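Narrative of activities, Objective 1.

The group set out to show that a structural description can be obtained from nothing but a protein's sequence at a throughput compatible with the screening campaign. Below is one input-output pair from the validation batch, recorded exactly as produced.
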Amino acid sequence: MTRHGFTYGHAAGREWQETARACLGQIGRVPRAANLGFLYVTDLLVPQISEILTFFKVQTSIPHWVGTVGVGVCGTGKEYLNQPAMAVMLAELPEGSFNVFRDVTHGAEELPMPAGDAAVHFAIVHADPHTPEIGTLIEDVADAMQSGFLVGGLTSSRNRHAQIADEVVQGGLSGVIFSDAVAVSTRLTQGCSPIGPRHLVSECRRNIIISLDGRPALEVFKEDIGEVLAHDLNRTSGYIFAGLPVPGSDTGDYLVRNLIGIDIDHQLIAIGEMLEHGMPLMFCRRDGATAHEDMLRMLNDIKRDLKAQPRGAVYFSCLGRGEHMFGANSRELELIQGTLGDIPLVGFFANGEISHNRLYGYTGVLTLFV
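Output recorded for this entry:
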């Protein structure tokens, strides 16, 4: 299907050649001015990723490609998990409006600049999860954007953590930066919901909460989660999380972090994030019904602001979402399709999602080319 210079295909199959040809068949006639390709493959195809990229370069004559590897990938109305699969989208963008980049490991000074006097406006990024200080690097690169915005995700793989930036690369941040000649609209949806009030971290040590609001951390935690869970703390694993409100957010965004340890004797809780005295914190539950509701809220919100049907889209969802939160049969992707229509869309299930200047978890990040 082609829409205003964007076209896509997605498929699964035992042999990568067969799957790639199926995608190409769905793409049909390559738009004459198409100049950027997006390619996402499941980690079962990592050994063949260079051959797959070469195939699409030759067949489309497009030299510029970005993408990465996921345990799952997605296309319009469809998700593929734990099977050899790929999703491809071709985009027709104004000449000189984008630059593919790779190997950003230290800061924004490593980014290429758009042609002429165009400002660096926005970027889609893919990151190796093993990159040191990845959160700080994301903030620095976002600060270099005129909009202050990045979207993307961390590669998820049980194999090599490969990214695509005109060629197959590994390590750091890679992706594509756009000038303001490329119009986009982006939103984020959370996969958890708060279960209690905001607290202040009154005492902490690194990632260990010692006290909240001047009271032992575990005592406050038990009050918030209720008697049933408080009597069997093992049941909180994978269900209850720490939420760190994003300073200055006007939409109530918060970062979700795992609980990684509970010390009953000393009333301590350890989470997957470094803490500071006085920072706000709340506890959240991972809830399929709430995630479904928030997904629809996000989709209706972004649709309300559209002045025309989107040309194409990329979607980055957490590995903990998909069938785990929305059920089988690609329900998460069907919600997007049902609200926004049959727009070309590709993406992957990430090991952490990037939106604005932060690394999230259990979220879905949708970006529309408008």
